[in-house]
Design goal:
Elements: H1 8-29, E1 36-42, H2 48-53, H3 61-68, E2 69-73, H4 82-92, E3 97-102, E4 105-106, E5 115-119, E6 122-125, H5 126-136, E7 139-143, H6 145-149, E8 162-163, H7 165-169, E9 174-176, H8 183-196, H9 208-211, H10 222-227, H11 254-257
Parallel strand pairs: 1-2, 1-3, 3-7, 7-9
Antiparallel strand pairs: 4-8, 5-6
Helix pairs in contact: 1-8
The structure holds iron/sulfur cluster.
């Protein structure tokens, strides 16, 4: 029998995404499942989530986009440009596809503050594109905190009237918050949809497999917190709660998964968690933001 280490929860958190990706790949290779088309729209945000996705490992992003799904539209990665690119978007609407949206939806003046394409002489807003694809997509994934909750794009005073994808579309939207989201959270969710057709979500529609614990639950500084020993300045080794750490109210598996090829994460680099995956980020995340 395989030894699974001292803590089964930690072990399973580390390996669940990986094993589901493997399962999805097997199903695709055995022709038991079909590759599904993917439209990835960059709406009102910084495009940080598609950049984060480029950091994916095992499988890397090329494998995801060529073998697991068929990427039909993404303005950062696709080869086509201009009208040709947008035609590809329109053609995909009549197929079975997953819609990923990163960035919030800017709604002021009919979406005028975020034009993503020009087609047959007409400016196409992100709002219109999200609406068109959102009506027809098999699954909609809001990737990143702006798409999930409004995030930085909807921060006070929100001059573009940006709102989350779920608020805008009023249909089931899977939220994968984080500023940015971790590549494993995105690929693991897509793999789960390929392999099983659905996945278990929490009350805020986040995949339970990635968002079921708080950072505080598994923080390596937790014993300092429990004993009331707190850092007084950045660089101290103790718990950073009194420096404004938002780990106790932020649900992600960062302490176990880690970032940038699984080598480190904010608290590991001596900086408090700023709560970037939280619903009220950034307005409600004092002291990171203070008005
Ligand atoms: S550093 Fe933050 S997450 Fe870690 S124990 Fe302290 S408050 Fe909790």
């Amino acid at each position: 029998m395989e030894t699974i280490g001292p803590c089964h929860v930690v072990k399973s958190k580390k390996t669940t995404a990986r094993s589901i990706v493997n399962l999805a790949i097997k199903e695709l290779q055995n022709n038991k499942k079909d590759k599904i088309n993917l439209i990835w729209l960059e709406a009102t945000g910084c495009s940080g989530n598609i950049i984060s996705l480029l950091n994916a490992e095992n499988p890397d992003v090329m494998y995801l986009l060529q073998e697991m799904v068929s990427l039909k539209y993404n303005n950062s990665l696709m080869a086509a440009e201009g009208e040709k690119a947008f035609k590809q978007f329109l053609d995909t609407l009549d197929t079975e596809f997953i819609l990923v949206v990163e960035g919030a939806v800017s709604t002021k003046d009919n979406g005028l503050y975020n034009i993503i394409a020009r087609y047959q002489g007409k400016a196409i807003t992100a709002m219109e594109a999200v609406n068109l694809a959102g009506e027809k997509a098999k699954y909609v994934l809001a990737v990143g905190t702006c798409a999930s909750y409004g995030g930085i794009s909807a921060a006070r005073p929100n001059p573009s009237n940006s709102i989350s994808v779920a608020e805008f579309l009023k249909r089931e939207v899977i939220r994968i918050p984080g500023c940015p989201s971790h590549p494993d959270w995105v690929i693991g969710t897509i793999a789960n949809l390929i392999a099983f057709g659905n996945l278990e979500l929490d009350s805020k529609n986040r995949p339970i497999m990635f968002y079921s614990i708080t950072i505080h639950d598994h923080c390596p500084r937790r014993s300092y917190f429990d004993k009331g020993i707190f850092a007084t300045k950045l660089g101290d080794l103790e718990c950073m709660f009194k420096l404004g750490c938002r780990g106790p109210i932020t649900r992600t598996d960062c302490p176990m998964r880690q970032w940038n090829g699984y080598v480190n994460w904010p608290i590991g680099a001596n900086t408090p968690c700023i709560g970037c995956a939280g619903e009220s980020f950034p307005d409600g995340m004092e002291p990171f933001v203070r008005y």
